[in-house]
Amino acid sequence: MKILGMNASPKGAQSQTLRLVRAVLNGAADEGAETELVDIYRLKVGYCTACGVCYAEGECTLIDDFPDLMEKMLDAEGIVLGSPNYIDSVTAPMKAIFDRMADAVHRQLFSGKYGCAVCTAGGSGQEKVVDYMNHVIIALGGTAVGGVGVAVGRDPNAILEGERDARELGKRLVQSIRGEHRYPEQEVIHRQRREYFSQMVRYNRDRWPFEYEWWVRQGAIREI
Ligand SMILES: Cc1cc2nc3c(=O)[nH]c(=O)nc-3n(C[C@H](O)[C@H](O)[C@H](O)COP(=O)(O)O)c2cc1C
């Protein structure tokens, strides 16, 4: 079982958020998973230009590190998203990655995957950013198993407690993949979203032939 951790802080080894991502991965490893960590700031990921070629042809026109990262995500059973709070949101490189995943949302490519999110903030907003990243996991068709947010500026010891919680979260992530925890409310959302996106793609089949043929191959819609 593979778990991919992504940290979107520019501070490299000094990142507080990295401590939480690492703790999640350590918890996952405790449960027997193989883990990999990617430092998002070392990658070159361009901005989506809304050209629509991914919907129509399944390929992006930009040449950069995104396709390799996407391949790693698709190869993993579990995804850990980590970002500091920058003005009550994720950092810009993490958002650039999300924006490159519009086709992945249309095709619900995280179906069957599990994920979680961690965030550190100076003073506040960490839970809001965790919720946003987990929302993205669900938007992609995946199941969000929980999150850890820590305000590091208010209490220097808070990160230690956060690391303990993050390690437990990593264990829960692997246990969830093994089917030891259920998320019935999210199962309902997944069914609704698969129905919604397969039908939306069907209505737009002339513009989005790649996604249309993909959903037909999935057996979710009948060829017209
Ligand atoms: C550009 C920028 C924006 C930030 N915005 C916020 C904010 O809105 N709220 C907050 O509490 N902390 C904010 N911070 C503080 C960081 O979230 C905090 O230092 C975090 O722990 C950094 O994580 P890192 O060490 O992993 O980079 C901001 C920091 C920077 C550099």
Can you characterise this structure?
The protein has helices at about 15-30, 55, 65-75, 90-100, 100-105, 125-140, 160-175, 185-205, 210-220, and strands at about 1-5, 35-40, 80-85, 115-120, 145-150. By secondary structure, it is an alpha/beta fold. It has one domain: Rossmann fold (3-Layer(aba) Sandwich). A five-stranded parallel sheet has the order 2-1-3-4-5, with helices on both faces. Strand 1 (about 1-5), helix 1 and strand 2 (about 35-40) form a beta-alpha-beta unit. Helix 1 (about 15-30) packs parallel to helix 7. It is globular, with a radius of gyration of 18 Å. It starts with a strand and ends in a 6-residue tail after the last helix. Flavin mononucleotide (FMN) binds near residues 11, 16, 17 and 85.
What is the compact description of this entry?
With 224 residues, the chain is of the alpha/beta class. It has nine helices and five strands; from the N terminus they run βαβααβααβαβααα. Helix 1 packs parallel to helix 7.
Instruction: Work out the helix count.
Output: 9
* Architecture (CATH level 2) name: 3-Layer(aba) Sandwich
Tell me the Rg in angstroms. Answer: 18 Å
Low-confidence stretches: none
The overall number of domains is 1
